[in-house]
Amino acid sequence: MEEETETPVIKGSFLIASPHLRDPNFRQTVVLMCEHGPGGSLGLVVNRRTEHHIMEVLPQTTGLHERAGLVYSGGPVQKDNLLILHKVGTSVPESQQIFDGVCLGGDLSALEEVSEEGEATDLVRVYMGYAGWAPGQLQFELSGGSWIVLPADLKLVFARDPHHMWASVMRSLGGNYTFYATMPPDPSMN
User: Which terminus of the chain is more solvent-facing, meaning fewer CB atoms within 10 Å of its CB: N or C?
Assistant: First the structure.
């Protein structure tokens, strides 16, 4: 594996699954780090869209139906919990800034109202579950080469077609990573 420039894991960075990461929960994933500190880490897998529409999981939030569309699988932890990632033109009370105006959570009624009245450029994603790491766990995985750390990219977080996101990131890294961009999600299918 090629040497990477050391990029620190911080809130608002991406964890890119290395080509060698075999865990099916994270194989070929792009994870947006939403929290990282001594108490552990929390992130959202931004490139695994489900077939569930927001209307199925949050039927009462009609203000989000048009903006959010399909729900994403945020990770293997607490899949019955929903987390909302958004970049809207108005501040949403109780939301947590992640990077470049992208926020997590907040008052659902306020977010719904902002979304209904919002701009065409407002972005909303709903995630079932999240990726979580106990204290020291992520550092251990990083030292084992499981993840590549990069600055987050707004275009990727809200990409229309997240299916090819991991391969696109691999190609952008160049070198041997370009070869891995063509690797199927399940190597046994090769």
Answer: C
Domain ranges for the chain, please list them. Answer: 13-178
Q: DSSP 3-state assignment of 45?
A: strand
User: What is the architecture, at CATH level 2, of domain 13-178?
Assistant: 3-Layer(aba) Sandwich (3.40)
Gap between the Cα atoms of 162 and 46, Å rounded: 7
Phi/psi zone of residue 86: left (φ > 0), alpha (ψ -120 to 50 degrees), beta?
beta
- pTM for this entry: 0.92
Looking at residue 1, its pLDDT comes to: 40
Radius of gyration over every alpha carbon of the chain, rounded to an integer in angstroms: 17
What's at 45, amino acid-wise? V
Instruction: Please state, in angstroms and rounded to a whole number, the distance separating the CA atoms of residues 170 and 167.
Output: 5
Distance CA 17, CA 152 (A): 14
Q: Which residue has the tokens 């020291």?
A: 136
pLDDT in tens, 79-97: 999 999 999 988 899 999 9
